[in-house]
Amino acid sequence: MGKIIVTGASGAFGRAAAEQLLARCAPEDLVFLTRTPEKLKPFAEAGAQVRSADFDDPATLPAAMQGGERMLLISTARVGTRVGQHRNAVEAAVATGVGHIVYTSLIAADAPGNPAIVKLDHRATEEIIEASGAAWTHLRDSQYAEAIARAMVIPALAEGRKADNCGEGKVAFVSREDCVASAVGVLTQDGHANTAYTLTGPELLSIPEALAMASEIADKPIVVEPVDDAAMFAYFDALGVPRHASDIVPDGPIPWSSDDMVTFGQAIREGYFEQATDHVAKLTGRPPRSLRDVMLQHCASWPK
């Protein structure tokens, strides 16, 4: 088997994937791409190849991807410009002989009615990969359990309340750890070509149910305030969150937009996240972690 490439290997997902791959593969068969190679010095010292690559500069990519057979394309963070970045990466990978591209996508990315605007970038990237001539595997992650256990729960506990437009829509929150392990499974096994997997946790819960669980663990109240989409926009406006991806200040304090968050909540409310699959277990050989398990892991960082 040829070399395995991991893009964005200095990010949280990429670094975790790199660590798992080093535990399973010969280091000389691993290529880790990053704009900041100095951050991956320990991996280079372990024998992996760390190469500089910038998706905004296609000229850097052919040399970075040379010799690769399989590539984990981790979606970049920049909503609105990342499809172009992903296209550059896919075209360079195929031109240098990469035969299989594994992409970190989103649950229901291919559902035509899904209102979450984030799905547009993911589905556009999936279509670029499908048309590239390489074999493909789409890993369609549900909402991360860690995002609930930290980004949502910490301010909700601090304020004692949470405005929410998700209604009673259900989500099988999935640990990022399980998504990483699933990606590593696809990269190191055969039989996953031209397949989409929906990666979920074991249990369907609404946001109010998830916050009730956090309230019980912390022994602190959280009042969930159901609001409509207009009120959710007003809530984010009051926090100074930009409305649209085009309004985001590069390297500014808030790297996301409220239309992304509000339509994400709408997608949950309308049932597009209401899937629980066995795909994590199929790809990793172990059951997925529960939201409670992830909350217990992070609750030491919650407000006392």
Automatic annotation (TrEMBL):
PANTHER family: NMRA-LIKE DOMAIN-CONTAINING PROTEIN, QUINONE OXIDOREDUCTASE 2. Gene3D superfamilies: NAD(P)-binding Rossmann-like Domain (3.40.50.720), UDP-galactose 4-epimerase, domain 1 (3.90.25.10). This is SDR family oxidoreductase. Residues 8-147 form the NAD(P)-binding domain.
